[in-house]
Amino acid sequence: MEPVFQANLILSTLLFTIGVLGVMWKRNAISLFMSVELMLNAANLAFVTFAFQLGLLSGGILVLFIMTVAAAEAGVGLAIFIALFRVHRHIRVDEQDMLRG
Amino acid sequence: MDSSLPVQAYVPEIHPTGLIPFLLLLLGGIACLVVDAATGKEGSRRYLPWIAGGTLLASITCFFLRLVPGEVFLEDTFRADAFGQLASIIILASTFVMTTMGPSLVRRRNLPSGEFYTLILFASLGMTLLAISNELLTAFISLEVFALSLYVLVGIDRRSRKAAEACFKYFVLGAFASAFLVFGIAFLYGAAHTTFLTEMAEVFRQGYVESVGPEGAVTEIPVNTMYVFVGFAFMFVGICFKLSLAPFHMWAPDVYQGGNMPAVMVVATASKVAAFAFLVHLVEALSYWQGFASGAVYIVTAVAVVSMLWGNLAALVQTNFRRMMAFSSVAHSGYMTVGILVLVALPGLMSGAELEAGQLLIRQAVILYMAGYTVMNILAFGVAYYIGGGGHMAAYRGLVYRRPLPAAGMAIAMFSLVGIGFTPPTIGFMGKFYIFKEAVQVGFVGIAVIALLASVISAFYYLNLVVTMFMRAETKPAEAPLAGTPEAPVQVGGELLARVVLVTACVLIFVFGIFPQLFIGLGETLVNGAVR
Amino acid sequence: MITPSNLLAYTPIEQAYLPVLVMLVIALGFCAVVLILSPLIMKGKPSDAKLEPYECGIPTVGTARIQVFVRFYLVALLFLLFDIEIVYIIIWALAMTHAENAQVPGFVAFSMIVMVFYVVVLLVGLLYEWKKGALNWN
User: In whole angstroms, what separates CA C81 from the centre of its chain?
Assistant: First the structure.
């Protein structure tokens, strides 16, 4: 059981790292948001892994709530992207530079 | 499959009165939605400010009526100690000020008033729950509730390109930060086998977790140090984003510049108070882990020092009032983080009753600072909003001669934001004094010196604004180029209420500055003299 | 009593994932066989019609990179938000109808009140978006 546990944690850390790199490198808002979702799901995997290893149920319940929050975030996020598209006609991140000092 | 359930069902203990202020906010928000859908555009503009403002005032009143118990309640999910209750009141006051600014903003920019007031109430609900939450998942959900509301409130002006960009940046970095927060929570859960902060403190104090194995055998699992640090580091990064602490502050200037002024005011004050209150509770629980201070002190010190120095230095060169306030808020978060630093180091230096007394002092210093920071920012942003000044420094040239009273209010806010070396003592001075005093007493003399130096730097740009207000406008009145822009002066209603709010803020700056014990005593009165 | 740890203990991890492994091997093997075999046995007589991407028999029109109408996103958003609430309702229903839980005094009444509150909140949201015309296609 121990190796599986460690493998899961490593996988979750890897997924999280991929998500972070995606947020830093991707230039399209949608891909950027997908990377954030990947990070959240990496955290979910870590929760489930810990819950199994410790023999607790609460980790699994936390995952459900985080999924809900992720869905709400997706809802608001996509709405914001649509609003941004309406005024800018594109959602490329590196061309958002109206606000400067 | 075995038919028995792993967990026996039970009816949870619900504190009957403790939830009332929060349920009020939720129901008020729903009522705003219903009234908005039922009445038309004009009707909702007329009724919703009253519903939203009334709900917020009623919720504050609940705290003063001592309906909220001064300890853990609702199955340990919430911990409304004096600190948390005062933080909640500060948050509600800040959102109330935003509600008073609402009618003029909604009318001027032709905003959907239903969404506007509903989101204010939902945001206050999330923020107050975060400030008193004792459980990490509850904290995360409350944080998301207010964060999602604030993203939309910042960008609610859909015709403004600047607002859309600010909203977008706030959302992307906010979502990024909350992913960090969740990942940190996962690892803390792995370390302590619980998400309740009070239980977590107990686990860390004894250093192991009692685990019941499949055969009913009780084993003691030692706490994994790596999980604690990974968990704390990730959660801290997530909260740093919300507090706009230095390496993670990049969203703040853009959001402050692009968003509408009332929403920016709440982002600057209430959301930070909520996140900071949670950070204090979190660090307090984690600091019982014996090896914690040795690692965390470096992280927290680095963030605090970089925030104080970078925030103030970057604010020096800003030509836009809103961006200046953004960097000033970075610096102020840095000062408050010095309080967190003391909290981290405290259990290594003392124990027992002495430790509890020390933690109480820190909590009081931090809450006083947060109250001061909130009042000063409400005053500064409020004056800027009501004179229609907005971003450009040019709008403040010669303000003293055109509108002396707002100019005086702005000057008071700026002097108080500097915080050092002025009499009579302002709340900005008292907050800094208490936090730095605690830092020196614990032995962080170097940090306190850096903080003082940073405050001296900050005097330059704050007083620069005051000087600007005294300069004669050179050729023509500064209103002329600004008329018709989104920042044009407020003409419709609400002037009286605005004056009342801003004068109250001025008075509070001096009252709590001269008698800080009044504010701290209020917190203890709220929880019936019980300290926790 | 079933806890996650002894659930896992009942089926060793090698066995639990064995079907997945078999599925993976079969899927990869099938693809490989088809991809390798078809160039070997076919007679190459290309024509314009044959080289076109096959969709459903109708001649292809325009480019595949078109903009999707914004309404689709709105519907997708609303679906997502009202879809995720099922997660809680299913668990609630399972917990409430379980024989052991039903005997706990006050549990059924309590969970009913909670669910009514939950559904009312959702209902207000639905009514609001209905009234605001978000469900209106035009």
Answer: 14
Closest Cβ–Cβ partner in C1, C106, C132 for B6: C1
- Asked whether the beta carbons of residue C95 and residue B9 sit closer than 8 angstroms, the reply is yes
* Cβ proximity of B70 and B118 under 8 Å: no
* Domain locations along chain C: 4-51, 70-132
Instruction: Check pLDDT > 70 for residue B477.
Output: no
Provide the 10 A C-beta neighbour count for residue C83: 11
Burial of B405 (0-12, 13-18, 19+ CB in 10 A): middle
What is the pTM (predicted TM-score) of this model? Answer: 0.90
Residue contact A75–C80, C-beta within 8 A: yes
Three-state secondary-structure class, residue B527: coil
Indicate the residue of C3, C83, C85 with minimum beta-carbon distance to A55.
Answer: C3
- Work out the burial of residue B87: count CB atoms within 10 Å of its CB; fewer than 13 is exposed, 13-18 middle, 19 or more buried: buried
Q: What is the pLDDT confidence band of residue B71, given thresholds at 50, 70 and 90?
A: confident
Residue C12, pLDDT above cutoff 70: no
| Residue B9 maps to a domain | no
- Cα B10 from Cα C102, distance rounded (Å): 10
Evaluate the CA torsion angle B335, B339, B340, B346 in order and state its sign: positive
Show the domain range for B69. 16-526
Are A73 and B144 in contact, with CB atoms under 8 Å apart? yes
In sequence order, the 6+-apart residues with CB closer than 8 A to the CB of B375 are: B427, B505, B508, B509, B512
Asked if the structure places residue B403 within a domain, the reply is yes
Please report whether residue B11 resides in a domain.
Answer: no
DSSP string computed for B8-30? --------TTTTHHHHHHHHHHH
- Does B506 map to a domain? yes
DSSP SS3 for A91: coil
Number of domains chain B is built from: 1
